[in-house]
Design brief:
Oligomer: single chain
Order of helices and strands: H
Mean pLDDT: 90
Shape: rod-shaped
Strand content: under 5%
Distance between the termini: 53 Å
Keywords: Acyltransferase, Lipoprotein, Transferase
GO molecular function: acyltransferase activity
Protein name: Putative Nitrilase/cyanide hydratase and apolipoprotein N-acyltransferase
Radius of gyration: 16 Å
Largest sheet: none
Length: 37
Amino acid sequence: MPFAVLSELERHRVRKTLLRVRELLEQAAALARKRRS
């Protein structure tokens, strides 16, 4: 497998992971806001 293809897959997976983490952080922030009010 060429390195270029591998790095492309890596980039895609990292992007997906970052999006997932951001989703979880936003959910946690929303819960925190609800608890405070």
